[in-house]
Amino acid sequence: DMAYVILLFLSILGGLRIWQARQFELNYSADPKRWRNQFGVGVLVMSTVWSLFTVMELSQTGASTEGYIIIMPLILLCSGATGSLLSSIFLFNSLVVILLLPQVIVLASIGTSDAYTAVVILLTYGAFIINLVNTKNKHYWDRLSVNEQLELKLHELAEQQRRYQVLFNSANDAVFMMSG
């Protein structure tokens, strides 16, 4: 049965992702760009497999309420939960499109009012989550940039303080030697 093959494939991918997470300190510090690329590929492969699985299930169950109840919350949770871990907006937007677009196409092809309702829900959710994450991501990186700038300024001020302290000590030594 195809569901077991997909379950096995997702389990193998999940195991590889856990292994990758455990190797984070070693691999990220050695080559951050390579690690981010591997992470991104893993996210896209997992979301593609999951999307194919949900499309197969929707195709088999048709436009049944039970199918929506099982599949739609899982798609929404996958996109929301995974999206909270991604620092790349492009990767997140790709993830949402990969997860939602195939379902929208299959549901639209079914052509019932229930299917169209599900299409509207998925499209609305997709637009909402993309807007929300893009906005939060921008604010996060803006704040991170400000924090980094403040930290650099703090280091600069500490260095100036150290230099002034050396000058002050030298001047004190000179005054002491001249007076004594």
Mean pLDDT: 79
Number of DSSP E strands: 0
Helix/strand-derived class?
mainly alpha
Globally, the shape reads: elongated
Distance between the termini: 97 Å
Summarize the structure.
The chain has 180 residues and is mostly helical.
What does this entry look like structurally?
The chain is mainly α and 180 residues long. The protein has 6 helices and no strands. It has helices at 2-22, 24-30, 32-61, 65-83, 89-110, 113-179. α1 (2-22) packs antiparallel against α3. The longest helix is centred in the C-terminal third of the chain and has 67 residues, at 113-179. It starts with a helix and ends with a helix. The relative contact order is 0.07. The mean pLDDT is 79.
